[in-house]
From TrEMBL:
It comes from Neopipo cinnamomea. It comes from the Eukaryota. Interconverts simultaneously and stereospecifically pyruvate and lactate with concomitant interconversion of NADH and NAD(+). This is UEVLD enzyme. PANTHER family: L-2-HYDROXYCARBOXYLATE DEHYDROGENASE (NAD(P)(+)) (PTHR43128), UBIQUITIN-CONJUGATING ENZYME E2 VARIANT 3 (PTHR43128:SF33). PROSITE patterns: UEV (PS51322). InterPro entries: L-lactate/malate_DH, Lactate/malate_DH_C, Lactate/malate_DH_N, Lactate_DH/Glyco_Ohase_4_C, NAD(P)-bd_dom_sf, UBQ-conjugating_enzyme/RWD, UEV_N. Transmembrane segments: none annotated. One of its GO terms (molecular function) is L-lactate dehydrogenase (NAD+) activity. It catalyses: (S)-lactate + NAD(+) = pyruvate + NADH + H(+). GO terms for biological process: lactate metabolic process; protein transport. Residues 1-131 form the UEV domain. The lineage of its organism: Eukaryota, Metazoa, Chordata, Craniata, Vertebrata.
Length: 465
């Protein structure tokens, strides 16, 4: 079956010698198009130092054209582990590395791939332990859902006046019925944000999209459809779709998402011409840009979830865990998701004189650095992103004019001249972004934002829109 059997066996012997804990087997791999193939794969742990020492479980599938084609790589988290989505790992645990993208025999080897994997994981740990506090938050969400099913929220009462149903005032559509899409529906419904929530299931077959249980238990004010027309007149459209496939490079994965968006965004824009588009697809900065281009909406009405979740956590850590004597409401996580995010501030009034101001600034920066270290250990699970989406839609529909760190067009900010989306603190209302909040002028922060903008712009230039 393997075209270059001897070369493959020789290389796997080298892997076994370097990593004796790996186990080898033949299993069936399913590709994006549904085709299947029996492939050699091996599983084991790689040692990673990230403050402490960790053993990261991985699985590599060896294609039958190996060593002229790179392996397909996945994380294999245990039940008490969560995946930290980043530049090199997607929500499904698929691993993307420059080494894979630039694979070339005989220079490229599996042992060399694993060495780069370890190096990248030491920069950004791909897994985290599920804590008791995580479980508590999830329990809180489930209790809200229980209240909905018992009719204890005020969603029904708001949609009825004098006993007559006056129709939908605030309608939200969630596009994509994967784990993230369903988490968004449940969180939005639990928060009582909308009079009507439509889950647009684009999957093939009634049960594939994970919507069957929603149909069975029939949450109030939640509808499921496979027709774009059901989204008509939505005030907010949340896009959660992500491509699942066998793309070999990070660029290929993004291009697959772009191709998905080409069939979704124009249709959504047609039926809800005044909606705010809220993008949660990965990578959020690039996909928000794609949604903006394909929708032809003004920039204020196309935003991404960005660093809203990180910022809320950051402020909570400063106030409740570190008990820091800083104005946490002025502290933000900005930039791009992943290892290149950075903390910043919107408050400038530190102290009356220069000496006191310097001391206050140093104290504040120490607290921020400690908070960012704590934040690194927090992953972004579907339900936590769903809660963040509910938070954003709440601010938009209720015109709260609350400040959130969301992905917005950054051109003109921090000397950025390209059309890229980065997370920046913005005031949100019914028309999306009302105003961008001015940040402190920190040369290091500006340099990091400009670097992120440059790399994102270079990536966007390679996409076929």
């Amino acid at each position: 079956q393997y075209k270059f059997r001897d070369l493959t066996i020789e290389e796997l012997k080298n892997v076994s010698k370097t990593y004796p804990n790996f186990t080898f087997s033949m299993n069936t791999y399913t590709f994006k198009d549904g085709s299947q193939k029996d492939l050699l794969n091996f599983s084991g742990t790689v040692p990673v130092k990230y403050g402490n020492s960790y053993n990261i479980p991985i699985q590599l599938w060896i294609l039958d054209s190996h060593p002229f084609a790179p392996p397909i790589c996945f994380l294999k988290p245990t039940a008490n582990m969560g995946i930290s989505v980043g530049k090199h790992v997607d929500a499904h645990g698929r691993i993307y590395l420059p080494y894979l993208q630039n694979w070339s025999h005989p220079k490229s080897t599996v042992t060399g791939l694993i060495k780069e994997m370890i190096a990248k994981f030491e920069e950004e740990l791909p897994l985290y332990s599920l804590s008791s506090s995580d479980a508590a938050r999830q329990s809180e969400l489930l209790s809200y859902i229980a209240k909905i099913t018992e009719g204890e929220t005020d969603m029904k009462s708001r949609s009825k006046i004098g006993g007559k149903n006056e129709g939908c005032f605030n309608k939200i559509t969630v596009v994509g019925a994967g784990d993230l899409g369903i988490a968004c529906v449940l969180a939005v419904a639990a928060k009582g944000v909308a009079d009507k929530v439509i889950l647009l299931d684009l999957s093939e077959g009634a049960a594939k999209g994970g919507t069957m249980d929603l149909e069975i238990f029939a949450l109030p004010n939640v509808g499921i459809s496979r027709d774009f027309s059901a989204s008509a007149d939505s005030k907010v459209v949340v896009v959660t779709v992500n491509s699942l496939g066998n793309a070999q490079t990070y660029l290929d994965v993004i291009q697959s998402n772009v191709d998905l968006f080409k069939g979704i965004i124009p249709a959504i824009s047609h039926y809800s011409q005044n909606a705010v588009l809220l993008v949660a697809s990965h990578p959020v900065e690039v996909m928000t840009y794609v949604a903006w281009r394909l929708s032809a909406f003004p920039k204020n009405r196309v935003i991404g979830v960005g660093a809203n979740l990180d910022s809320e956590r950051f402020q909570y850590i400063l106030t409740n865990l570190l008990k820091a004597e800083v104005l946490a409401k002025d502290a933000w996580v900005i930039g791009e998701q992943g290892e290149d995010k950075v903390s910043s501030w919107t408050s400038y009034n530190l102290a009356a004189n220069q000496m006191e101001g310097m001391a206050a600034r140093n104290s504040r920066e120490k607290a921020a650095n400690r908070a960012m270290e704590v934040l690194k250990g927090k992953g972004q699970r579907s339900w936590s992103v769903g809660l963040s989406v509910a938070d954003l839609t709440d601010s938009i529909l209720k015109d709260k004019r609350k400040v959130h760190s969301i992905s917005t067009l950054a051109k003109g900010c921090c000397n950025i001249n390209s059309e890229v989306f980065l997370s920046l603190p913005c005031i949100l209302g019914t028309r999306g972004v009302i105003e961008m909040v001015k940040l402190e002028e920190d040369p290091l922060v500006q340099e990091k934002l400009q670097s992120s903008a440059g790399s994102i712009h270079d990536l966007q230039q390679q996409l076929k829109l």
